[in-house]
Amino acid sequence: MKITRRSALKSSALAASALALQGPRLFSQASASVDAHIDILPGEPIATISPEIYGHFIEHLGGVVYDGVWVGTDSKIANTGGVRQSFIDALRSVGATLLRWPGGCFADSYDWRDGIGAPSSRPARAGFWTQQETNRYGLHEFMHTCRAIGAKPYLAADMRTLPARDFYQELEYCNAPAGNVASNSAAPAVPNSLATQRAANGDRDPFNVDLWGVGNESWGCGGNLEPEEYAAMFRRFTAWTPSYGGVEPRFVAVGGNGDDVDFTRRMFKALYANTEKRHLFGLSIHYYTSGSPTEFAGGDALKFSDAEHYDMLARGSMMDGIIRDQWTAIQTTQQPGQPNVRLIVDEWGGWYGNGTRLGPTYNLSQQSTMRDALLTGITLDIFQRHAEKVAAACVAQSINCLHSLVLAMGDQSCVTPTYHVFKMYLPHHGAQAVRAEFSAAAIANPMAKPALQMDGINYAGPASGSRTLAGLSGSASISATNPKLLTLTVVNPHLDRPITTEIAVGGAAIASASGTVLAAADIHAHNDFAHPDAVKPAVAMVGAPSSGRLTHTFPPASVTSLQITLA
Ligand code: AHR
């Protein structure tokens, strides 16, 4: 049976051939002893890398919230206020900036009022993923999770089953100040009743939520809407929404699926049908990389061939084209006086078939190997290279799900190779992205056919971008506090080829460098509860620079983070 995104959601509730060198080498000297060159160009700044691109996502789905995030206050498992300690610790240590909740598809039939108040009086209801929702974990528990991690909350509002009034009141419940509020009329100051209710439920201080997703995948599980229909709803949900305590809400509209720029263009055209200024910060786009080139949510997380490895990374790299195309769609529909909208990639990651579920009730859980670590590096580097376009992103999903950083069951827990990559990319947070030119032979995708069948597998648009995979890719940034400190992250996707690379910095000499590398002898390597450290980073063996340049060998199937100090 052909599995489309729709049916997947329903049912689950080197051959390396040398191609032309990529990119011009701007000032490196040709050298017979190296395989590749990286020219970092500090004179060509891109933008500050928004720390919010290192965001996360949890949904009421399978074992994500219950057992994953929430173990309960009376659990023997280490926790803070009922939230699994190992989850908090992992997300803290990767500097998680954003946490998106409660979905995903779950969000569009979720009533936030069901998850507040005394736990014993919260209703149990049917949730999106054909599972019973106890509502034990709700708005307050989520806010406490964010606080414990040090992440900002990013709420997805129910647009499919609740009216705009509920959204408006959710915002008020979260952000209105407690205590008497001046009426701005002849009426006396009195407390706001929703803020009073919030205080009675344990949180007097406002949650000050500024980032709001207005619906989720409204072209699909969020209502099967046409872009024009969605635009009309977005206008109604967001026009004249109040702000409290100086917190201006940043609204995120739903954009096209993957590379579906037609949806995006039509949505913006309809959105700007009149000249009233829209209240809009970002456009949400989602792109998942299936483990199979022919079906959505296919392939196996652990069992894959070399060809499937290259194919998956080639298709994952299409994120670059998607960002460019969606960005162009925004620019070409821009109207005078309307806000500058940036991209919010609030769901991304690898998505495989069911073969490696943690257990039958852990819907959509899967293992993560070194291949997923490479996809993580490739994706974060793409976001960093497009720092002026991408304002925020959330990996889907943080625990016990698709592209997870943490796996947990009962009292067992481990981190995945993806977790390590997020940690290695910490120095890029808030740094200045600069152009870096990579010159390396590309890898032909051994599974690419003249016309890849991409329809219905979470990608609408040209698939030509997946015919080759960069033989070496990455990104560079300059520290916001030290102009002489550069971070260079690099992914070598070759399974059996170390890539010896000459690294040069335009207009400057490299004084020294050090780094961290994540690599494993077998691309299928992964961590599990019995072997939590099977994959972990090591110190990279970095030599001394010569004539202001560094020659470094990137091991096969590796992600490397180099800290480069300029003279
Ligand atoms: O992350 C799993 C699901 O994928 C989300 O609920 C939905 O938004 C997307 O289709």
If you had to describe this structure to a student in words, what would you say it looks like?
With 567 residues, this protein is an alpha/beta fold. Helix content is 21%, strand content 25%. It is built from 11 helices and 27 strands. It has a 9-stranded mixed sheet, with helices on one face. An 8-stranded parallel sheet has the order 2-5-8-11-12-13-14-15. Helix 4 (164-175) crosses helix 5 and helix 6 (227-238) packs across helix 7. The radius of gyration is 24 Å and the shape is globular. The termini are far apart. The model is unreliable at 11-30 (pLDDT under 50). Alpha-L-arabinofuranose is lined by residues 9, 59, 103-105, 216-217, 347, 396-397, 402.
Q: If you compute it from the alpha carbons, what radius of gyration comes out, rounded to the nearest whole angstrom? A: 24 Å
Measured between the Cα atoms of the first and last residue, the distance is 60 Å
Measured by DSSP, the beta-strand proportion falls in 15-25%
Output the number of helix runs: 11
What is the percent of helical residues? 10-25%
* Secondary structure tally: strands: 27
Mean pLDDT: 92
The chain-level structural class is alpha/beta
The coarse overall form would be globular
Low-confidence stretches: 11-30
Q: What's the main sheet like? A: 9 strands, mixed
Record the strand order, biggest sheet.
25-24-27-22-21-18-1-23-26
The molecules bound to the chains, other than polymers, are: alpha-L-arabinofuranose
